[in-house]
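Troubleshooting log. The previous structure file for this entry was overwritten by mistake, so regenerating from the original sequence record. Sequence copied from the archived sheet and checked twice against the printout by T.R.
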Amino acid sequence: MIALLLALGSSLAYGCADFLGGLGARKAHVLRTVMIAAPASLAVELLLWPLLGASFSTATLAWGAASGVASAAAFALLYRTLAIGPMNVLSPVTALVSAALPVAVGLLQGEHLGATALVGLPLALVAVVLVSAGHGTGTARPSRTALLLAFGAGAAIALQLVFLHQAPADSGVAPLIVGRAVSSAVTLAAAGLMFRRLGPDRPAYGMSAAAGALDSVANLLFLLAARSGDLAVVAVITALYPAGTVLLARTVLAERLHRGQLVGLGTAAVAVSLLALT
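Regenerated output below.
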């Protein structure tokens, strides 16, 4: 139950971070937003160091760096995917892959699921697709390149979570710090190389920093959840993060929730209830 609650908190934090990051990216080039979010995210994790401890063993450094590279790859592939479109087809593909791969890894590592989990996990995967799908799914056919990029983005997100899970359980927040330092260095280097194409618009500093801070909180909650529960269950619950994004968009921006998303939210509630009984 503790792992489930932590995973739900991680999902909510990821959803809020994506919402704020998306709003920030409307005001300036997305890399300008990342240039603010990345240092803010790293600062939060450094502040957590004295509270939660950190052990920088060789294994921690390796798995943390791997998660950082996967995070940077996920960022590049995801935004390239959404730029090609159609978003309402590719976003569910990315979300489904990011949820399904950690489930497979968890089961291959010997995790055993109860009867309710065997029902709840497929329902949760369905909810991930429904919640992340926008209006008009299926009205446009994505290209083969776009589909490959969507699978790549989902796989990179999944690998980031799996690599964090593989870090030693007694390493504290060290894998998060290492991963964030690596991903920040990669994205900031990319921003430096593309500086002339970023445009003159200033980013929303407060919004971008808040998105980065929430992303760190989400990573921390996922790590704690994965250490106290099954990766298969934790990863699927975390992948429900689009629910937080669409609910915030409904509340703050008065965006309409489409029928499929409403069904997805209901399906997610049923799936979480079943997983809580496991």
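The chain has a mean pLDDT of 81. Archived copy saved in two places this time.
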